[in-house]
Design a protein that fits this description.
Layout lengths: L1 H17 L3 H14 L4 H14 L3 H14 L2 H18 L3 H14 L4 H13 L3 H14 L4 H8 L2
Helix pairs in contact: 1-2, 2-3, 3-4, 3-5, 4-5, 5-6, 6-7, 7-8, 8-9
Length: 155
């Protein structure tokens, strides 16, 4: 059964990654990719591997883009926050970072954490007006969001 093989291979790749055999994980994930190229989970795992362990940012971007295109709502948050790390910390590209935050908050409109992340980013680059809007939206979505409340007070 190809679904059982896919699950087993995915687990093997994750174990390889866990023990620090990143090239071994890559080989298994890429083999598995041939079986299931539209798996958002596999594409997300490849993006994660390339971003955090193999430091191949163009490949990370390629697989994260596939993950968000094929992904379900539950996993999209993780993919977008990791893509934030990719654009902000990896590529160090402010334009891609801003575009990603706009995309993420348009696709996932109910995540106070994404709005908080966007607010923190805009505050860090000195755009307090945009930061304020994101923090206010985070608080509308989650009135208990003390981080965003404090950030607003300190703008």
């Amino acid at each position: 059964n190809s679904l059982e093989a896919y699950d087993a291979l995915l687990k093997m790749g994750l174990i390889k990654q866990l023990i620090g055999d990143y090239r071994g994980a890559e080989q298994i994930f890429l083999y598995t990719y041939k079986l299931e190229p539209n798996s958002s989970i596999l594409n997300g795992n490849l993006g994660h591997l390339y971003l955090y362990y193999l430091k191949d940012y163009p490949k990370a971007e390629e697989f994260y883009r596939k993950a968000v295109t094929t992904g379900k709502a539950g996993n999209l948050y993780s993919y977008y926050t990791e893509m934030y790390d990719l654009y902000h910390d990896g590529f160090k590209d402010p334009d891609k970072t801003k575009a990603l935050l706009t995309e993420a908050t348009t696709v996932i409109t109910d995540s106070s954490q994404l709005y908080q992340l966007a607010g923190q980013y805009y505050r860090s680059i000195g755009d307090t007006s945009t930061a304020r809007g994101y923090f206010e939206q985070a608080i509308r979505l989650n009135p208990q969001d003390d981080v965003s409340k404090r950030a607003l007070e300190n703008l």
